[in-house]
Design brief:
The chain is mainly β and about 80 residues long. The protein is built from no helices and seven strands.
Length: about 80
């Protein structure tokens, strides 16, 4: 079980990722990974609600990998 990606923005080394949870149970975003760096996130997305994940890395990420408490992963790529 994982949320739906709505949109994502990158500004320098910071990212803002908008997610929607279409499920009937909450989903927690545990971590964001990029370039070997990990950031603890701890954002809970309630059922049928939106949430924003913010993370800053030491360099500009080309992609971010999100890990959820359900065991699922999601890759968000930036161009």
């Amino acid at each position: 079980m994982r949320p739906t990606l709505i949109t994502a923005f990158r500004e320098g080394s910071s990212v803002k990722i908008y997610l929607y949870n279409p499920h009937s149970e909450s989903i927690k975003v545990l971590e964001a990974w990029s370039g070997g760096e990990s950031r603890d996130i701890g954002v809970t997305i309630r059922p049928r609600e939106y949430a924003v994940v913010n993370a800053t890395f030491s360099s500009t990420p080309s992609s971010v990998l999100l890990r959820f408490d359900s065991g699922a992963w999601m890759e968000v790529r930036f161009e």
